Amino acid sequence: MPRTLIIPDLHNKVRKAEFLLAKLKGQYDRVCFLGDYFDDFDDTPAHAERVARWLRESLDRPERIHLLGNHDLAYLVPGRLTACSGFTIEKRHVIAEVLADVPLSRFAIAVNIEGWLVSHAGFHRRFAEGKTPEELITMANGALKRLVRGVDEPLFGIGYAPPRIAGRGWHYVARF
Fold first, then answer.
1. DSSP conformation class of 77
2. Which of 16, 93, 113, 117 counts the highest number of beta carbons within 10 A?
3. What is the Rg, in whole angstroms, of the alpha carbon atoms belonging to the chain?
């Protein structure tokens, strides 16, 4: 069974990720990035360009799986979603220039990794109730296709985290 290293939100820290991957070489067979490649405190369009170039190269590596997070969607689906901290039009322009010919089909919203449902932010119960993990994956990745075509998708709406769970992070990995 392949060993998978899961790396959550990079928020521009691609050099640290590559350092970690090099240090752990031989201890994993593939890598799953959970998205949020872009945006960090006080970053600039130059940072966004560097990350977009890294992402373009990383997508070509077959041992890497790339999910999308809310920060990525704000940049990669122009005009549909912009509600994330750090978003700027200037960064959107440089990211779009670098990734112009990269289809969003190279990314996923959710995947099954060795029996684990893996996504950036999980699923609200109104989307998940009564669905198998495979149905959720199909639904989520289909929602991305519709979003790209201009359809408003509630799945990508901004949610509310009650205070008792706020601060735990948005990443979601569930065993099935």
1. S
2. 117
3. 16
Please count the other Cβ atoms lying within 10 Å of the Cβ belonging to residue 161. Answer: 11
Q: What is the pTM of this model?
A: 0.87
Enumerate the H helices of the chain as residue ranges.
14-23, 45-58, 70-76, 89-98, 125-128, 133-148
Tally of domains within the chain: 1
Q: Count CA within 13 A, CB hemisphere, residue 138.
A: 5
Residue 23, Cα to own-chain centre: how many angstroms? 23
- Cβ neighbours of 119 (radius 10 Å): 23
State both tokens at 52: 């977009």
Q: Which two tokens stand for residue 68?
A: 């999308």
Sheet holding 4-7, edge to edge: 4-7, 30-33, 64-66
Q: What is the pLDDT of residues 4-42, one digit of tens each?
A: 999 999 999 999 999 999 999 999 999 999 999 999 989
Classify the phi-psi angles of 160: left when phi > 0, otherwise alpha if psi is within -120 to 50, otherwise beta.
Answer: beta
* Cβ atoms of 64 and 58 closer than 8 Å: yes
